[in-house]
Amino acid sequence: MTPPRTRTIVEPAPTVEPAPTVDWPIECSSPPCYLAEFATAPPAAPAPGICVKRIYEPPDLADGFRVLVDRLWPRGIRKDRAALDAWARELAPSEALRKWLHADPPARWQEFCARYRLELRAVTPALDALRERGRLQAVTLLYAAKDRQVNHAAVLREVLAMR
């Protein structure tokens, strides 16, 4: 005896609507490492330009190319924690100029800026390379000084912004 034949009915597949666009970042209850799976568009790349940041602040994706512009390695920072792309010692003030400033920072700041700008003229190729990178991607100048307004990285950023 032959087994009875059964019919298989194939139903049409349901139509799938495209996923709606979502503003980045999206709020989800899942861990942040899974956010990329739910996003329809990748996060925007950091905007080109040059910014200044203390090296003691945690690295951020918006930092782009991270370059340390101190002559001395900052205290308490491990190299892996620094997340550096470059260390441009040649763009830091000379040791003599740095020590001269530390004798009386408030009174000598204006003179320091003028002298530091003169020192930077000797490293024009390094300045031009960093300036060009700043046109293409975000560049973050990292420094270890405690004062966020009065530091050589702020002067260096002004010099890079010229031209």
Task: Walk me through what this model shows.
With 163 residues, the chain is an alpha/beta fold. The chain has a domain at 49-161. It is built from 6 helices and 4 strands; from the N terminus they run αββαβαααβα. It has helices spanning 35-38, 79-82, 95-103, 105-120, 124-136, 152-161, and strands at 49-54, 65-68, 86-87, 138-143. A 4-stranded parallel β-sheet has the order 1-4-2-3. α2 links the parallel β2 (65-68) and β3. α3 (95-103) runs antiparallel to α4 (105-120). The protein is elongated and about 105 Å long. The relative contact order is 0.18.
The coarse silhouette is elongated
Order of SSEs, N→C?
HEEHEHHHEH
- Per DSSP, the total helix count is 6
> Approximately how much beta-strand content do the residues carry?
5-15%
Q: Could you give the count of β-strands?
A: 4
Sheet having the most strands:
4 strands, parallel
Please give the structural blueprint.
Layout: H1 35-38, E1 49-54, E2 65-68, H2 79-82, E3 86-87, H3 95-103, H4 105-120, H5 124-136, E4 138-143, H6 152-161
Parallel strand pairs: 1-4, 2-3, 2-4
Helix pairs in contact: 3-4, 4-6
Name some characteristics of this structure.
single chain, 163 residues, alpha/beta, four-stranded parallel β-sheet, 6 helices, 34% helix, elongated
